[in-house]
Amino acid sequence: MRSVLVTGGSRGIGLSIARRLVGAGYKVATLSRSQSPALAAEIEAAGGALRHFEADLSEIETIPEAVRRVKSELGPLWGLVNTAGVGADGLLANMHNSQIEAVVRLNTIAPMVLTKYVVRGMMAGAGGRIVNISSIIGSTGYSGLSVYGATKASLIGFTKSLAREVGQLGVTVNAVAPGFVDTEMTAGLGEDGRAQVIRRSALRRLAEADDVAAMVAFLLGDDARNVTGAVFNVDAGNTA
Description:
Helices cover about 45% and strands about 15% of the residues. The protein is α/β, with parallel strands linked by helices and about 240 residues long. Helix 1 (about 10-25) packs across helix 8 (about 210-220) and helix 4 (about 95-125) runs parallel beside helix 6 (about 145-165). It is globular and about 45 Å long.
């Protein structure tokens, strides 16, 4: 049974990814600061196929030990899904420097460092799969999300360059860019905001977290063995 590490798996898209991968036959470890009640319920239902490890990825120096703990329990990792991230609404001119730094640390530096320690094992073994969760905002932009957009754009550049570094060793690296997904985060848009997003989407609806999870599952599987360095929008046609 192949093992996959999913960061930010306690809620939203990360939890949907963990659930989908367990259903697809993977052994899954989630990595986040805490275990939500929803994740606890999934762990109980998974019958040993889903584990949770506590780690604060914003504390970069703790990442190597977190990876060591996961590998000691699950063995070599076939897949890594970098889902953990934080948003920061507000105009750049009004953001405190510490807030900018915190967003960049968790959304950009943490997944890069985590990938560094995971990909070493993939390079030494029989290959593997890395999937970075970006956002359409990384390419389209959105007022009030300039720092968040910058971090998500950085993951796209990271994906494309790393794919070239490790491809010859059998490791694929891809990115999934969700649009406005129907989760608790988009609930903050309010009815008018959600309606506006739906109107400008080709399918006239919001994508769902499980749509993103399905794309991740495809990229981790054997059918995607010749797909690398690519970015897949899952946005109900918002960018069409």
